[in-house]
Every structure is written in structure tokens, then in C-alpha cells.
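R.M. (postdoc): so does anyone remember the format we settled on? I'll just put the C-alpha cells first.
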């Protein structure tokens, strides 16, 4: 299997399967002498790990990270940083009944069609378990970016239920299990997700990631665009089916007068009067907040019988057992933050290499 790495100068490669002994990541291109320890990386992994509340999968993984290389006396050495996360709560027996059956909405059929073999235990390499490795890489990327770049994410929609942006409060995200910046919406989502969970079904979500403190000039025209790399990074997250930068598809409903981000002279450079472009113009950061949203489909593993076929091509039905998220979008927030961090760290180093 190829294509397990992402990035150009800041580059990471993930490895491992959902029900294997461990997963991990090797991060290359990390500058030397940056502060890095397991506690820093763990603080981000703890935000993603399963089993923290009734609205996510009850798989109990401590997700304790081990630094195997690239760090000495609490600082990076400039060599590859290798990180290990052991799997401790696999229940492979939960998947024995689907060994010869393809789960609708999953990668079972496409993996088998491509490789002629698949790890049916939780999806193997296609499992969202792999995203823990990305979150670890993102923690390293944040050290590369430094404290000047602040990356935060939120869930802005579950199913058809959107937040009210006039009530946006970043502090509210830490007060509810939904990464929701709108206290009223969070209360409504609780009843919605409880009903979804109890019925054995699932529901989709929209996640928004915002990076503040990104200076103007990161990215390159044509084939090195910052927004195209961000779109690819977010689309690479499990269950993501759509990505938009700034206003995204909503921009199609605007006029040229409405969409243009007008500028006025400021004390420290131009002041933008709006940010429809999401902080990126012509593939290059403008100095405004970089804003990315992505749509996460409903979890495909549900208790309702679904029609499918088996390895012999026979029609059958399947009920997917095991421990699954009623809304996988909730745990996608720290993953989206990590991918934003990795792409920005890569473009920061590329900017430094080209322009000094």
C-alpha cells in the first residue's frame, strides 16, 4: 500500500491498523532545538481519544504516546521524530460475523477490489483509529509553528441543525461534549444525539477549523496553493465528503460586490473589511484568519439491517455490531486541527526555504 505520507518539507508517515498491536507516525523535516515531550503531544491526543462521553464510541483507549526517536533532553534533534501509540482495547470478535460480508458505506468492498485482501477487524487501515497518529503529528507541527499561530476547531452543524453564529463563544467549546461554540445549540444537540444513539443510527456533521496568526505570504500560485493543500488534507480524513475554504459554496450565491474582501490602510498593513476568501487569495495566505470547513458523513456502522453482498457475490443483509460513534464528526475536530497544523507547518518551512 502506497500513499501513507503527507507533506513536502514537514512530512509525516502513519502506520498501523485499528486492531493491530499499535499505530504510529514518523515525522520528518522537524527543525532542531524545538521543545517537545510526550506530555505536550498527549494533551492533544486526550482531546481525540474515544470513550470520553456517551456520544462517542466506548472503545477504551488511553492513547498514551511514546517518543522513540528524534528528541533528546526535551528538544528535537532535527532527525525523524518517531511516535508510538499502543492499541489496548481491541475486540476483534465483534467483527467476526462480517469477515465475508461487505459493510455498506465502508471501504470493505473497495479495499478488497484493489488488494484482494482486507482486514475486517474494525476496518484495519481504513479505520478512524489511524487519525490518532495524525493528531500526534499535528502536535509536533504546532511546535514548528510556534505560539503565534493559534488553531481552533468547532462543530457548527449536526444533521440539519446549525449553530447561531451570533452566539459564537470559543470558551463554550470546553463546556460541552459536542465542540459546540453555541450554548443553546449544544443543549438541543444533546437530545438529538441521545435519540440517534438509542435508535442505533448515526448522523453527520460539519466541522470548522480556524487558524489565526498566519502571516501573509504562505502558499504558492498554481500547484502549491495553500487552500488546495488544506482541501486535500481535510478530504483525507476518514468520513469527510466535502471541504470548503472561507464562504465556500455559499460564495456562489453572492455578487462580486458582496464577495470581494475590501481593504483599507492600517497601522500594520492592510485591514480587510470581510473574510469571504477564508484568509487565502490566489493560493497564498492574506494575513487574515484561515477558515476551513468540512462535512463528515454519518457513521456507516449502524444497527439497522442494510442490504449488501458477500465475498461470493450473493445478496444478503448486515447489522454492524461493535462500538461506534453516533456522530463521528465530534471526534473529527482535533483531527481537523492537526491537519491544519501540519499543512501550515509545511508551508511555513517552504516559505522560509524560498524567501528566507
Amino acid at each position: 500500500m502506497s500513499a501513507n505520507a503527507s507533506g513536502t518539507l514537514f512530512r509525516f508517515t502513519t502506520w498501523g491498523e485499528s486492531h493491530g498491536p499499535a499505530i504510529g507516525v514518523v515525522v520528518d523535516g522537524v527543525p532542531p532545538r524545538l521543545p517537545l515531550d510526550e506530555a505536550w503531544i498527549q494533551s492533544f491526543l486526550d482531546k481525540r481519544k474515544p470513550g470520553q462521553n456517551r456520544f462517542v464510541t466506548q472503545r477504551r483507549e488511553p492513547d498514551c504516546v511514546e517518543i522513540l526517536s528524534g528528541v533528546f533532553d526535551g528538544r528535537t534533534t532535527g532527525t525523524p521524530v518517531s511516535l508510538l501509540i499502543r492499541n489496548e482495547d481491541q475486540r476483534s470478535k465483534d467483527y467476526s460475523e462480517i469477515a465475508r460480508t461487505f459493510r455498506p458505506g465502508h471501504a470493505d468492498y473497495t479495499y478488497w477490489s484493489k488488494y484482494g485482501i482486507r482486514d475486517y477487524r474494525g476496518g484495519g487501515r481504513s479505520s478512524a483509529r489511524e487519525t490518532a497518529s495524525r493528531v500526534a503529528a499535528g502536535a509536533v507541527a504546532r511546535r514548528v509553528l510556534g505560539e503565534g499561530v493559534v488553531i481552533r476547531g468547532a462543530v457548527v452543524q449536526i444533521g440539519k441543525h446549525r449553530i447561531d453564529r451570533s452566539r459564537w463563544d470559543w470558551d463554550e467549546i470546553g463546556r460541552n461534549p459536542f465542540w459546540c461554540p453555541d450554548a443553546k445549540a449544544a443543549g438541543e444537540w444533546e437530545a438529538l444525539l441521545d435519540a440517534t444513539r438509542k435508535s442505533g443510527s448515526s448522523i453527520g456533521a460539519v466541522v470548522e477549523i480556524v487558524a489565526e496568526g498566519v502571516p501573509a505570504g504562505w502558499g504558492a500560485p498554481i500547484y502549491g496553493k495553500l487552500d488546495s493543500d488544506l482541501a486535500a488534507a481535510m478530504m483525507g480524513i476518514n468520513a469527510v465528503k466535502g471541504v470548503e475554504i472561507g464562504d465556500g459554496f455559499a460564495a456562489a450565491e453572492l455578487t462580486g460586490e458582496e464577495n470581494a474582501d475590501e481593504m483599507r490602510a492600517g497601522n500594520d498593513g492592510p485591514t480587510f473589511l470581510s473574510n469571504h476568501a477564508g484568509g487565502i487569495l490566489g493560493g497564498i495566505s492574506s494575513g487574515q484568519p484561515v477558515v476551513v470547513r468540512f462535512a463528515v458523513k454519518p457513521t456507516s456502522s449502524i444497527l439497522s439491517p442494510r442490504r449488501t453482498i458477500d465475498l461470493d457475490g450473493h445478496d444478503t443483509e448486515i447489522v454492524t455490531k461493535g462500538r461506534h460513534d453516533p456522530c463521528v464528526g465530534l471526534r473529527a475536530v482535533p483531527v481537523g486541527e492537526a491537519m491544519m497544523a501540519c499543512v501550515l507547518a509545511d508551508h511555513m518551512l517552504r516559505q522560509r526555504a524560498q524567501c528566507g
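R.M.: ...and that's the designed sequence above, right after the C-alpha cells. Also worth knowing: The chain is about 25% helix and 25% strand. The two ends are 36 Å apart (CA to CA).
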